[in-house]
Amino acid sequence: MKPVKVGLCGLGTVGSGTFNVLKRNAEEISRRAGRQIQIDLVGARRDHADCNLTQVRLTRDIFDVVKDPEIDIVVELIGGYETAYELVMTAIANGKHVVTANKALIAVHGNEIFAAAQEKGVMVAFEASVAGGIPIIKAIREGLSANAIEWVAGIINGTGNFILTEMRDKGRDFADVLQEAQALGYAEADPTFDVEGIDAAHKLTILGSLAFGIPLQFDKAYTEGISRIAPEDVSYAEALGYRIKHLGIARRTEQGVELRVHPTLVPAKCLLANVNGVMNAVMVKGDAVGPTLYYGAGAGAEPTASAVVADLIDVTRALTADPDNRVPHLAFQPSHLSDVPVLAAEDIHTAYYLRMQVREKPGVLAQITRIFSEYDISIEALLQKEHGHANAPVIILTQRVREGLMNEALAAIEQLEDVLGSITRMRVEQLDLA
Amino acid sequence: MKPVKVGLCGLGTVGSGTFNVLKRNAEEISRRAGRQIQIDLVGARRDHADCNLTQVRLTRDIFDVVKDPEIDIVVELIGGYETAYELVMTAIANGKHVVTANKALIAVHGNEIFAAAQEKGVMVAFEASVAGGIPIIKAIREGLSANAIEWVAGIINGTGNFILTEMRDKGRDFADVLQEAQALGYAEADPTFDVEGIDAAHKLTILGSLAFGIPLQFDKAYTEGISRIAPEDVSYAEALGYRIKHLGIARRTEQGVELRVHPTLVPAKCLLANVNGVMNAVMVKGDAVGPTLYYGAGAGAEPTASAVVADLIDVTRALTADPDNRVPHLAFQPSHLSDVPVLAAEDIHTAYYLRMQVREKPGVLAQITRIFSEYDISIEALLQKEHGHANAPVIILTQRVREGLMNEALAAIEQLEDVLGSITRMRVEQLDLA
């Protein structure tokens, strides 16, 4: 069969990785795919020092790529929302298949993009958009397709996980580690997307749709970052047998779907708690398979390229397939997506870690526990640290409770005269793991 | 589209699980696959208490299933080699697609089966044959298809991992834990297949072929069980920062492919070391993606059914595909398999853990280390346990060395007058994980 011709838009980190992996493993890739997959045209504002571009056509205008009649598959690696959106929609309109690593684009514009692709009979593949080289989209969409998925929980931002790992291992504080992460190139100059959970929420939005067959609804994901985690919370969590991880969690409940990104205490013994540094990992719990976990590099030139190129091979294989029998973009047939609502933050159910500063005098704990009991919130553990000062921190772990109820209980407790300042809270998840 | 009709052969643990998962999740599965997947005919010697068979056709002769003109896909869940082989070959001859969970069948007869399927243009899917519900075959064959795979290392037998976990956690000995595993139903009355590594070698043979594009060569896999692991080795390993796991390892070297199943010391901090009880996990290292890991239940009715049903959905989708563009059975096009040889045991390179009993007197260690140095074997760590007796155990960790050379060095050391009895050895792997 004649080679498949690929047009590559963007020659940054992932673009150069994709270029080089396709070239280095060309022979092995042909042995797998049954035909050659060739980059024929590269659209990029500038060359990349790591790529030998002598054997490809080059253009400085990425829109040339999506219009080129020779190109079968367009790879979009420019990132961002607007130009990428226009580029991908033009590619689809021109009958090109698309492979993208762009999580923001899919999370925000995916519904429209997939509808357009469906109408044109082309594929849009996006494995690289979540958790880099880990084939998590394939695992959920195909590998676990027998299951009613119950929940997905993942460490899906390497920068955040690096910071939390350093905070725990070395007792350092957030700002200090962030600076190092920036120096190492793990964090951007403006780290907001990573540390405030926006990047993770993009990825979680995608995972949630694939798991539950709901349209992409990034605007409904609850998002909380890691910038306010204090070193003392890291060590109290440790003392209680937990570690703090920044998780994206999508859970199906009877009322709807929870979509939430936040710092989470997880049992120190579970595998997710032991995923360190910039690595990513996603757990998926299916009703038949039980808990499963997928681990690997969530970013970087070649790990991300691994997913981009795997998509190219999949798309190549499916070129001759009946469009109706392809794996649907969002795992479920577009005509059969579910309208189960994404729940508001107050309707999320989780257990809690709470830290409050109280006056060290008799009766304070009794007042606090009475309020919890009035709100029907069960306490799992209570730890009072004697400081020998007038004030002492009290740490409480609760059982699962609706967030709205917890908000009310905490407001009532914060009213107590002997409770000082506001209460620090973090969510706790057991993740069903022994 | 009209429903796909499935004929199920075998209604034991996995058969009943498959029946029930397909039924329970029927609606969700149709929403994914775009058509119904129905069990139409069940062939089994007896009914199963967990399955309501009122709405399917039944036969006591499994060969009726593979001959039935209504059946599109045959699911082989009878296990064993001979009848299963005949059944699958008959199904293929009759133009049926096949889904099987039978690792022994694929490891031993896979080459013939795939050749027959190729000729008939039918698919044989076998995700459930390795690591139960973990979609590891899909991950290697499709998810990591961009990579030159460097190695695969996995805990792929739950019984063995349960025994090793108990030995470590509770300081118990092998025979004692095996008895409990049998009582719990984790181990068979005749546990040979599990504890001597045969089951793991079947699975490893399959993983090795998928990773490196070589024909299945079960007879060339080196296999060593866990029945001779002593409690003291478990605790010495622990003291050195390692845990003992029964791993299947397939590694590509310049000389050929290593295929080996044996007890292995792995760093206590790495994720594989923290996979406990009956759970399975497989690490795959690709040149682009780096190390990745896949974790989940490796056995049991519904976890295995999860993989069987996912295969049914995949096969259903590919029914209308061009046979030449399907994912090849062994990951690479059958015309492009590699003839890289599987290496003999002597040509495997690993690091070693050694335990030997020596007379406690001056000069003994000097004699031992001189021999290692003569064979150019570097010592990584040496631990002498003072017992206050005349004899003391010496523990040595070496760096990587060719096994043939290690055999010679150990034979020389065992000749020393002050080294008593034979030397215990286990292999050590760092697995590239921080």
* Quantity of strands of chain A, as a count: 17
Number of distinct helices of chain A: 14
In terms of DSSP E residues, the strand content of chain A is 25-35%
- Report the oligomer: homodimer
First-residue to last-residue Cα separation of chain A: 50 Å
- Give the integer mean of the pLDDT values of chain A: 95
What's the story with the biggest beta sheet of chain A? 11 strands, mixed
Estimate the global geometry of chain A from the Cα principal axes: elongated
Largest protein interface, residues of each chain: A-B, 75 and 74 residues
Which runs of chain A of at least 5 residues are low in confidence (pLDDT < 50)?
none
Radius of gyration of chain A: 24 Å
Q: What structural class do the secondary elements of chain A suggest?
A: alpha/beta
What percent of the residues of chain A sit in helical stretches (DSSP H or I)? 25-40%
Tell me what the structure shows:
Two copies of one chain form a homodimer. In chain A, 36% of the residues lie in helices and 25% in strands. Chain A has helices at 13-24, 26-33, 62-67, 82-93, 103-120, 136-143, 158-170, 174-184, 192-195, 198-212, 231-239, 301-318, 364-374, 403-414; strands at 4-9, 37-43, 57-59, 73-76, 97-100, 124-125, 149-155, 222-223, 242-252, 257-267, 279-286, 290-297, 349-359, 379-384, 391-398, 401-402, 419-428. In chain A, the strands form two sheets. In chain A, strands 7, 8, 9, 10, 11, 12, 13, 14, 15, 16 and 17 form an eleven-stranded mixed β-sheet that branches. In chain A, strands 3-2-1-4-5-6 form a six-stranded parallel β-sheet, sandwiched between helices. In chain A, α1 packs across α12 (301-318), α4 (82-93) packs parallel to α5 and α7 crosses α8 (174-184). Chain A starts with a strand and ends in a 6-residue tail after the last strand. In chain A, 56% of the residues are buried. The model of chain A has no long low-confidence stretch (mean pLDDT 95). The interface between A and B is large, with 75 and 74 residues. β12 of chain A pairs antiparallel with β12 (290-297) of chain B. Chains A, B: It catalyses: L-homoserine + NAD(+) = L-aspartate 4-semialdehyde + NADH + H(+). Chains A, B: InterPro entries: ACT-like_dom_sf, ACT_dom, Asp/hSer_DH_NAD-bd, HDH, HDH_cat, HDH_CS, NAD(P)-bd_dom_sf.
